[in-house]
Amino acid sequence: MADGTGVAVGAAGMSRQRLAPKTGFARFMRQRSTIAFLMALPLILLIAGLVIYPAFYAIYLSMLNKRMTQFVGLGNFAFLLKRHTFQLVIFQSCLFAITAVILKAFLGFILAHLMHNIPGKNQRIWRGLLLVPWVIPLALSTLSWWWLFDPSYSAFNWILNYFGFKSIPFLGVGWNARIVVIMVNVWFGTPFFMIMYLAALKSVPEQLYEAASIDGAGATQKLLFVTLPMMRNIISITVLFSLIVTFADFDIVRILTAGGPQDMTHLFATYAFSVGIQSGDIPLGASVSLFMFPILAVAAFFVLRGVTRRTKEIAT
Amino acid sequence: MSATATHVRAAAAHRAGSLERQRKWALWGSYAALSVFVVLFLVPPVYMIITSLKSSAEISAQAGSPWVVHSPTLENYTYLINYHNFQIYFFNSVWVTILVVAFSMIISVMAAFSLTRMGFWGSQTISTGVFLTYLIPASLLFIPLFQVIGKLGLINSTWSLVLLYPTLAVPFCTWIMIGYFSSIPKELDEAALIDGASYVQILLRIFIPVAMPGIIAATIFAFTVAWGSFLYPLAYLYTGDQLVLTVGIVSDLIRGDVFLWGKIMAACVMAATPPVIIYAFLMDYYIAGLTAGATKG
């Protein structure tokens, strides 16, 4: 059999040589790597032109003055760091991203376990219902949250009043708004964690649990010594990925509060938008965005490491 | 080996009664807990539908529970269907989405095939780069892109979205397709090559049909990006004839201090319907593609 394939490949090689065109350029165009490069070229152009170039352009922009006539070096960054509003932005972005990701990871973990208990056929329906928040475009569902929190018509306040509690100004008071914004993000993002964890749970071989049971392990021990180690990689990939997405979130805050009250809910993205697009100070907006970069880069590095490790694990 | 098996089975039978009961409790407990979550998760969409069925008069009267529709009406929907601006937003969204999905899929399928099966100098680096690009959020680069779009003369043109959305969709689509393509056994394309097939034929006749689940997953992702994005259209479009749904609803139906909530919610329901329908039918493919990205790499 080995001989047979050898012969076949040899024959194919020969026939290809015979068919090969004479001129240099035509031969070059028919080469495997040339065709390969041409097929990947649209992707390369797209990323080079609309991702890498704008990234460097952002760095250049961030070093100009408002009218983009003068080079000011790191002036914009220094100016931002001294500004109270921007300090609030840094604090709120970190608070928002960290709290939301922890809550999403925790709830997603619980949901995945609950879902894992349910037999296959019903699971699809329940999973579908729980994925609804994640399926509706965020900008649209946030509008309905806004309506639920409306100062004078809030349906939540109606429930509170009904049970004899006082109305809460959900979006009018700084810390309330901060909590609301985090809550909406958790509502949107938990289903994603659920499906990632559910997939991970399903990939844990049943024999491991059986073996653990035979060794006398209880539910907690199974969770700590079988489930978590097997899921560790996916948990870290999902958490870090979500950290990136949550940190850079725009839609929720923009629609619900537009950064208010007193700029207490601004995130990097919404602040960059209000400074760069609305107030027209492009360089300052670009520098606000760039403040996200270090955190995103660190998270991205670890995600990539996790994914490559995972690939190797599965390959072996 | 059979000795151990019987031993295990005997032990299992011994505890079967209590285990059975435990399992039953776990099952009903799970159902109960999940029901609570489902109710909490579905509050906004359900309230969206409730509000969309109310007349403006009923909303502003604030009589009785806001959670109940007292006199259901479809007037918000008929208003929107006949409202010229809303038709334009819907049409804009549709054609931007179709173009973006088409471009993204062509670019990413070709690139994924070339990166997994043909390879050239630096293709490994590009694969890694593609994944890193996927991790770049839209809000990091929208300000320099504003300048780029301005230079191209595409500010306030839906073409800017057709140009920019692929940068969000293509990296992940390529990543999904790389995963699916590399799971196809090498023998398959070697055999085809020996039979004299060209690479284009291999891609069209073997890889695309075999990797169809992956293509569906990637298409849904591109659709999601193109249909639901909010930041780019908000930043780059401003006149009524160029807006897409996500932004059009906000900027058109909120007139100063007047919020036409019934119409806003009806518009949201209509704009959310296409993705919900697509997910209802193709959810399994999408989840498989999504989780494969992390679990298979």
CATH superfamily of the largest domain in chain A: MetI-like
Second CATH tier, the architecture of the largest domain in chain A:
Orthogonal Bundle
The CATH architecture of the largest domain in chain B: Orthogonal Bundle
Put simply, the count of helices of chain B is: 13
What structural class is derived from the secondary structure elements of chain A? mainly alpha
Count the E strands of chain A: 0
Largest interface, with Cβ-Cβ < 8 Å?
A-B, 102 and 100 residues
Instruction: Tell me roughly what share of residues is in helical segments of chain B.
Output: over 70%
What is the N-to-C order of secondary-structure elements of chain A (H for helix, E for strand)? HHHHHHHHHHHHHHH
List the helices and strands and how they pair.
The complex is a heterodimer of chains A (316) and B (297).
Chain A: H1 2-19, H2 24-30, H3 32-61, H4 75-82, H5 84-117, H6 120-135, H7 138-148, H8 155-162, H9 174-203, H10 206-214, H11 219-247, H12 251-256, H13 268-278, H14 282-290, H15 293-315
Helix pairs in contact in A: 5-9, 5-11, 6-9, 9-11, 11-15, 13-14
Chain B: H1 2-52, H2 56-61, H3 75-81, H4 84-118, H5 123-134, H6 138-151, H7 158-182, H8 186-194, H9 199-210, H10 212-228, H11 231-236, H12 245-253, E1 254-255, E2 258-259, H13 261-295
Antiparallel strand pairs in B: 1-2
